[in-house]
Write a structure and sequence with these properties.
It holds the Pfam family GrpB. By secondary structure, the chain is of the alpha+beta class. It is built from six helices and five strands. A hairpin with a 6-residue loop joins strand 4 and strand 5. The longest helix has 28 residues.
Length: 178
């Protein structure tokens, strides 16, 4: 896969919403919520032009049962692909346009880390800018090596993810009262 990082495209939220509606039609009553995650969900952030979508479902096994419908939309099912409990599907093959990261509702750790990372970048432009600079540098260094690109981001992402989770709990954890 060729690694290409581009300037933020204001069309990305609309691309997410359009695809989310199609996924809602497939997942139906199994769907709890659907989120735009990843770099394309952060206004102003340079990103690979791939829309990351996180459906949260009641029963993750039912996602597997919808493989025919996902294939009809152009998705390739990749199983867990390294994250236990996730269902990863990609659209567009080597010229990927969308990625699905589906989790069952009780996979709270993975769901929260994605949402916290997204929201932290949205609320901390200095971190978002540093992340954009790193991604641009790595894309230039590893234009044909997605593994090298991802490995280069790993330390930064894990560090920010840790800070983001702490920030998220401070921001939302103490304020939820009945």
């Amino acid at each position: 896969m060729h690694v290409r990082v581009v300037d933020y495209d204001p069309a990305w939220p609309d691309l997410f919403r359009t695809e989310a509606r199609l996924l809602e039609d497939i997942l139906k009553d199994n769907l709890v919520a659907i989120f735009h995650i990843g770099s394309t969900s952060v206004p102003g952030l340079r990103a690979k032009p791939i829309i990351d979508i996180m459906p949260v479902v009641h029963d993750i096994k039912q996602v597997d049962e919808c493989s025919r419908q996902f294939r009809a939309l152009g998705y390739e099912a990749m199983g867990e692909l390294g994250i236990p409990g996730r269902r990863y599907l990609r659209k567009g093959g080597e010229n990927r346009t969308h990625q699905i990261h589906a989790f069952q509702y009780d996979n709270v750790q993975n769901i929260l880390r994605h949402l916290a990372f997204r929201d932290y970048l949205r609320c901390h432009p200095e971190i978002s800018h540093a992340y954009a600079a790193l991604k641009s540098e790595l894309a230039a260094r590893y234009p044909g090596d997605i593994g090298g690109y991802c490995n280069g981001k790993d330390g930064f992402v894990k560090h920010v993810e840790r800070d983001a989770l702490q920030w998220y709990w401070k921001r939302y954890g103490a304020t939820s009262r009945c």
